[in-house]
């Protein structure tokens, strides 16, 4: 039995789907089983990594787990898992752990990686760069008009499709990989202005990028993320202006098939940009 935590998230939902497609027995935990919308064939149990009392039932009979990094809350999961026969953990981490200077996001994920490594369980870390799914944050603007306002339109990145992040994690589970850390990114360098144009092509509309001043963007983001994380992200965008982002061959190396392009991601999510988000 493979347990998927974070199963309702961008990555976890795809981990569930791909494990089912591979014929595996899958259990998922969520804090909201009634609205999880997970596919038939997966056993869905209530579970919360910050509430250890929910974990023994979730972990019973489980040998392998895809672990979502709820910061500061992995120790109980790892301890209870080990006591009940868990053998392998594939952790969703972040490429930010490899950055040369310490940063809030990388530091939190490093703590998660260390907790997993020190648990005595077999582990693999999946360290993605920027998710293509971050651009779903533009859906409300695109539903409301033809303009996307964001800071640093010329910042380049090589974002990765959540299906590819999941595929690397699933490969690690199916192959029972141990002691691997996969630094994964997308297959092409694109600026935000270019991504907005590609999104427009996917939904059959001409979209335009408009520069949002940093301070306005910061004000908006600060309600959703800790200030250190916001500044780290904005600094990252600022430093990516005028650059070409490094692309990564690792998805193809691990999965045996090419990573999805941004145009493929946009086509897959076209409906998310056509409807008005709830
Ligand atoms: N976005 C990026 O560019 C990027 C890049 C690198 C790394 N990352 C990392 O990737 C992660 C985000 O992944 P994602 O986009 O797939 O997630 P997501 O879509 O934001 O979903 C969050 C998931 O976490 C689960 N969760 C939250 N709190 C929980 C708790 N206390 N106990 C159990 N489950 C809990 C939620 O489950 P329920 O609500 O169903 O309980 C949900 O499935 C973050 O750690 C982020 O730092 C992101």
Automatic annotation (TrEMBL):
InterPro entries documented for this protein: Ergot_Alk_Oxidoreductase, NAD(P)-bd_dom, NAD(P)-bd_dom_sf
Domain called NAD(P)-binding: residue spans: 6-175
Coiled-coil zones: none
Matches recorded under SUPFAM superfamilies: NAD(P)-binding Rossmann-fold domains
The organism's place on the tree of life at top rank: Bacteria
Protein name as catalogued: Uncharacterized protein YbjT (DUF2867 family)
Higher taxonomy: Bacteria, Bacillati, Actinomycetota, Actinomycetes, Streptosporangiales
